[in-house]
Structure formats: structure tokens, C-alpha cells
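Exercise 3.2. Students should predict the tertiary structure of the chain below and write it as C-alpha cells, then compare their answer with the key that follows.

Predict this chain's 3D structure.
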Amino acid sequence: MNKKQQDTLNEIFAHPTKANIRWSAVQSLIRALGGKVSEREGSRVAARLNGVTAIFHRPHPRPEMKKGAVEAVRQFLTNAGVKP
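Answer key:
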């Protein structure tokens, strides 16, 4: 995991929850942790890491995630055994 991916991980677990994390950075982080990200129908994206799967909606029209989406990613990473 490079510095940018570590920074993204720290931002996801930051309190209060940030709303300016780019979706592309989250995808890069999941892949760096050994996970897989695959496209589904519409704006759905499946993420799989350490046997845990979650479905997210790719943010649009802006590339930044909203707070609720960041919290969902945080929960996914926690369930997959990832800590900041």
C-alpha cells in the first residue's frame, strides 16, 4: 500500500466523517488491500475483500462520496478486518 492509499484509509476512518473522498481512491485502496472491485448494473459496484462482499453505488455526477457512502465503506472495511 502506498502513501496515497494509506491516506485514503485514514480519511475513511476519520471522525467526523469526511465527504470529499474520491471513489477512485477507494477502489485503489481496496485493490491494494488484496480485494477485487467489479462493475455491476447501472452505477452499482461490488467490492470483495477477505471473504466479505459489499455493493456500493458509484457517486455521480461528482466523483466524491457523500458521508453515508464513506460510512458504508468504513463498515465494509471493518467487517473485512481492516484497521487504520
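Discussion points: Residues 3-79 form a domain with the Metal Transport, Frataxin; Chain A fold (CATH 3.30.920). The helical segments are 3-12, 23-32, 67-79.
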